[in-house]
Amino acid sequence: MAFYTPDFFARVKNADATERCFLIETKGREDRDVPRKARAAVEWCKSASAPGAGWDYLYVSEGLFGRATATTLAALASEAAPELTALVNAETTEVEMPLFAYGEKQAEKTAGTAGVVDAGLLAAFGEPTSRLRKAAEEAAALFRFYENKPDANFAPLFQPLLAPLDDAAKNFVFHALSTHMPADRADQEEWFSPPMRHADPKAAAHHDRMGKQLKRLMLWNNPATPLGLLRDCLEFGANDRSQFSGVFAALKTAFGGSATLPLLAPVKAVADLRNRCIAHGGVDADMVAAALNADLRDKEKTLAHLRQWLELLRALGTRASNAQAG
């Protein structure tokens, strides 16, 4: 580290008056020194941290930069955590490979998906230049890269799919509810926050948060957790027996039928893997998270998860398009 100069330093002041400092490295292509530098940087940050002033190493690859949805440094660090974990665990003698090289030839990308992504599924994601198809190809290429490495953790290959999944979830919910939402702004306020008399306090608090997230989605297109919101909408439509009006009555209409019920199980499964092992760096430590993390060290189980993610992306895109056309 004595002669290492990172690309950026950043300091963030937290609400509790503490500070969080970032040592930031951006990278277009991987080389043999990158894992070694990353390990040294992580250790330096541990040593430099003090009470009230912590240091974190933030490694931003070209691929992460292209797909990230974070709007704060803390959120970006969370999105980058799985890739950094894989990087610091990499062998120092690893052969140079551009893990997230968007400039690869299309023929090479397509060849890398063989046996990982069904050709028909790949074609359903659009032209080779489409964002979703690029994400699917990148995930497949990462699977091929990790599959023959001993004790590999496959978590990073799901990173390219995080933003497309969030976009698909937002589009699905928006098109399902848009025809039910009042046009008048004053009516919208009441629609998103209907009376909840006689509701259980715990359920009322959950529904209140859900109504606020739906409002953020429908009016401003920025819910906090789009895939989680879609899961909540599907669970509400399938299981909730409340008689609330407004947006919750619309949810029963839009998500309570047999057409959307088959989506509930795959959405819950994908959301579990996303939240417990991928998006937040695998910080959860319960039994479910332990089982899912074990899956990500098994080639065949990882491949099954990857195909489930891609099938869900296709299903959400198809249904949203049909709803929009209808």
The H/E string reads EEHEHHHHHHHHHHHHH
The coarse overall form would be: globular
Neighbour order of strands in the largest sheet: 1-2-3
Helix content: 55-70%
Which consecutive residue ranges, at least 5 long each, have pLDDT under 50?
A: 91-111
Q: How many DSSP helices?
A: 14
How many strands?
A: 3
What is the SS-derived class?
Answer: mainly alpha
Total of domains: 2
Rg over CA atoms: 22 Å
How large a portion of the residues is in β-strands, by DSSP E? Answer: 5-15%
Question: How would you sum up the major sheet?
Answer: 3 strands, mixed
**How many angstroms does the end-to-end distance come to?**
59 Å
What is the average of the pLDDT values? 83
Describe this structure in words.
The protein is mostly helical and 326 residues long. It folds into two domains: 1-103, no CATH class; 105-326, no CATH class. It has 14 helices and three strands. It has a three-stranded mixed beta sheet with strand order 1-2-3. Strand 1 and strand 2 form a beta hairpin. Helix 7 (162-177) packs parallel to helix 14 (299-325), helix 10 (226-239) packs antiparallel against helix 12 and helix 12 packs across helix 14. The termini are far apart.
